[in-house]
């Protein structure tokens, strides 16, 4: 609360913080199991930070010890092989991959550390919820909550 020296009333708690809940993505996933592989077609619609659509063809082994997945994005002409997410802690995962972009004729590798907290220098919580529509069809909703907490200042007399 702001106890200013100018005699103003303290600011209410509702004015000190803000939480903005934003639906950020909708995925429709169509899957079929073929000879030890799961073949999937993902239609991905993104709301934030900009409206975007992506289609992906995904292949991954059905074995529980699977260590990779293959992704082809026809719109971006991108092919990737990614490792499965490797848990480092309860909230931190590592994923590595190699890929080739046919538009730019570029091959490279990348790695990614992911967590549900933070991102892009903003205080943010991200989460996903999946819903099985029918056998072979899943719908995934992604949302994020951006938050600003009050600044606490003080002094010791």
TrEMBL record:
InterPro entries: DUF7781. It comes from the Eukaryota. It holds the Pfam family DUF7781. Residues 12-156 form the DUF7781 domain. This is DUF7781 domain-containing protein. It comes from Prunus persica (Peach).
């Amino acid at each position: 609360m702001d106890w200013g020296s100018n005699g103003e009333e303290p600011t209410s708690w509702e004015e000190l913080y803000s939480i903005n809940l934003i639906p950020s993505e909708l995925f429709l996933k169509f899957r079929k199991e073929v000879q030890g592989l799961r073949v999937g077609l993902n239609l991905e619609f993104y709301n934030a930070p900009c409206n975007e659509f992506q289609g992906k063809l995904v292949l991954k082994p059905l074995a529980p010890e699977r260590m990779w997945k293959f992704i082809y994005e026809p719109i971006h002409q991108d092919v990737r092989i990614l490792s499965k997410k490797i848990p480092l802690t309860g909230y931190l995962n590592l994923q590595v991959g190699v890929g080739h972009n046919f538009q730019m004729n570029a091959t490279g590798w990348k790695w990614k550390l992911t967590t549900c907290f933070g991102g892009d220098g903003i205080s943010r919580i991200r989460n996903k919820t999946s819903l099985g529509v029918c056998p072979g069809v899943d719908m995934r909703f992604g949302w994020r909550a951006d938050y600003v907490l009050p600044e606490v200042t003080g002094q010791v007399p």
